[in-house]
Design a protein that fits this description.
alpha/beta; binds zinc ion
Length: 282
């Protein structure tokens, strides 16, 4: 299996997990840790390039996204390499199992899980374990050890419950799957999860008003605000291309072909996004 096939297979399992929890990959991923700032790290999967963001404070750790259940021990081991502080809060950027699968195990260790109310509703609908216990609609602030994390839901994008975690003192942002970086991980609009290609560019426009340099994408390497701006334009182009074909009365197969050739969509992305795109942009 090449790297790209593994990425797609695992993302597929992750999404299936939103409704069929238990169909996740069985083994833990190999992890490594990247230093973004003195107090900010990313725990990165070597082969499936998913990201968890770790903010270290003098009173504990805030962890943004916790991968699959079987990854929790390795995430905690990676955190131990940079601090002895315990994890105090987990933030889920959205409900998908590759970002929230560790919740139940961490909650058993008295960690509070924070997400949007829309994300929590997806947990409830799918009877997905580890539902967040602290939720908000638009804005929440976490203060720990004199450090502040700002959580924003700016609108629909990958799902209807996406949040970004903004670290003002670190000038950094954890974007979740609203931003996937690199050709190996094409954009996925999870219509069943409330995603919207129509609203996606506007949602990123609001994110771009925050003041930051470093961006942790949901999948892919840590990068810059300029790359997020480029990705915003890709979401706009995707929306416009689909709309253009619909206006030309193109067939479903023609739209599919365009998404595969111009936006690198694979079976997973077609399956999850095509019907929703055609319905939303008609
Ligand atoms: Zn996702």
């Amino acid at each position: 299996m090449n790297k790209r096939v593994i990425v797609l297979a695992v993302l597929g399992a992750a999404l299936a997990g939103a409704s069929l929890y238990g169909q996740f990959p069985t083994g833990p991923s190999k992890l490594d840790t990247i230093k973004v700032r003195d107090d900010l790290f990313v725990v990165h999967n070597a082969f499936v390039p998913g990201n968890s963001t770790v903010l270290v404070t003098s009173e504990g750790v805030i962890l943004v996204d916790d991968k699959f259940p079987q990854d929790v021990d390795n995430i905690l081991a990676e955190i131990k390499k940079v601090t002895n502080q315990p994890v105090r809060y987990v933030v889920n950027t959205h409900h998908h199992g590759d970002h929230s699968g560790g919740n139940a195990r961490l909650q058993a260790m008295n960690v509070d899980v924070v997400a949007t109310e829309a994300a929590r509703r997806h947990f409830a609908d799918a009877k997905q374990p580890g539902a967040p216990t602290v939720t908000f609609d638009e804005t929440a602030y976490l203060q720990l050890g004199g450090t502040r994390v700002e959580l924003y839901h700016f609108g629909r994008a990958h799902t209807n419950g996406d949040l970004v975690a903004y670290f003002p003192a670190q000038r950094a942002l954890a974007a979740g799957d609203m931003f996937t970086f690199g050709a190996d991980v094409p954009q996925l609009i999870d219509y069943a999860g409330g995603g919207s290609a129509k609203e996606w560019p506007r949602t990123i426009d609001r994110v771009l008003q925050l003041d930051f340099d470093a961006v942790v994408p949901g999948h892919g390497n840590v990068t810059t605000k300029a790359e997020l701006r480029k990705f915003r334009d890709t979401t706009d182009r995707l929306r416009n291309r689909v709309r253009e074909l619909i206006l030309k009365k193109a067939s479903r197969a023609e739209v599919e072909k365009m998404l595969r050739s111009e936006f690198n969509f694979a079976d997973l992305h077609i399956g999850r996004s095509l019907d929703g795109l055609l319905a939303e942009l008609q």
